[in-house]
């Protein structure tokens, strides 16, 4: 029987497959592929877990941002209310100050009027006394003057007692 190269190639191929099966190469390849598939599944699960965690963290930060914006809006509103209150208070104090100053000015004006009236009265009394004295000096003689002085002294003594 004559064996050609194809026959020997076929025998070599069969021996190769027998050796591969004997050494359990398909099991090792399957095991390696299974390990690699498990590793990929683990990485996918880890990536999914990290994605969910990132979404949770993003949602938490968005919630905190909204809370911070609301708090900032509250602070701004409180500052505006306080500014309005301070403005109203300053306006009221200014009005009270102006009213007090007006009242004080009016009081000083009234006092000046009273002083002026009293000064005019005092001048009028002095003028009347001087006029009366001049008239009495011209019309009254010594006896009348003595009677008037005694009468005035009597009145003063009576009032002092």
Report on the biggest sheet: none
Number of DSSP E strands: 0
Give the amount of beta strand, in percent. Answer: under 5%
Q: Helicity level, as a percent range?
A: over 70%
Spatial separation of the terminal alpha carbons: 184 Å
The number of helical segments is 3
Report the mean per-residue pLDDT as an integer.
88
The Rg value, from CA coordinates, equals 63 Å
Write the layout of secondary structure elements.
Elements: H1 5-22, H2 25-139, H3 142-160
Describe the structure using short key phrases.
161 residues; mainly alpha; 3 helices
Protein described:
The protein has 161 residues and is mainly alpha-helical. The protein has one domain (5-160). 94% of the residues lie in helices and 0% in strands. The protein contains 3 helices and no strands.
Briefly, what is this?
This protein has 161 residues and is mostly helical.
